Amino acid sequence: MKKIRYLTPLIGLLIASCVTDKPDVITDDAGNLHYTTPYLDDTRGRNIFPLK
């Protein structure tokens, strides 16, 4: 019984730490799913293509 008392919060913390962001899901023409970074969270290329 003590193991369950310790394992339940530990498993909850592990699951909560794995789900930290919500990626955008894009489906291509073949039906394959691709997970991308949300537009406002993606900072690559901001100095070349700034937000207007």
If you had to describe this structure to a student in words, what would you say it looks like?
- A hairpin with a 5-residue loop joins β1 (24-27) and β2.
- The chain has a domain at 20-47.
- With 52 residues, it is an alpha+beta fold.
- The protein has one helix at 2-18; strands at 24-27, 33-36.
- The chain is elongated and about 55 Å long.
- The N and C termini lie far apart (58 Å).
Write a concise keyword list for the protein shown above.
52 residues, alpha+beta, two-stranded antiparallel sheet, 15% strand, elongated
Topology:
Elements: H1 2-18, E1 24-27, E2 33-36
Antiparallel strand pairs: 1-2
Outline of the structure:
This protein is α+β, with helices and mostly antiparallel strands.
Mean pLDDT: 80
SSE string, helices as H and strands as E: HEE
Largest sheet strand order = 1-2
By oligomeric state, this entry counts as single chain
| Residue share in helix | 25-40%
What is the 3D shape? elongated
Radius of gyration, whole Å: 19 Å
Tally of helical runs: 1
- Could you tell me the strand content as a percent range? 15-25%
Question: Major beta sheet, specifics?
Answer: 2 strands, antiparallel
Give the termini distance in whole angstroms.
58 Å
Structural class of the helices, strands and pairings?
alpha+beta
Give the uncertain stretches in residue-range form. Answer: none
Strand elements, count: 2
